[in-house]
Design a protein that fits this description.
There is one protein chain. It contains two helices and no strands. It has helices at 2-13, 16-48. The longest helix has 33 residues, at 16-48.
């Protein structure tokens, strides 16, 4: 999936550096979303107990 997004960004922007920056921002956002979901799941488990 990351390969497809990378290739698409290279095609759209025609700049390797800009594509790399956008990809890094997407990966950072994904990591924050995963951490948020994990925190919410942990809180719901704690509330059930």
């Amino acid at each position: 999936m990351i390969f497809v997004v990378s290739a698409g960004l290279l095609f759209i922007t025609e700049s390797w550096w800009m594509s790399l920056g956008i990809l890094m921002l997407l990966l950072l956002a994904d990591a924050y979303i995963q951490a948020y979901q994990k925190k919410k799941e942990q809180q719901s488990k704690d509330n059930e107990s």
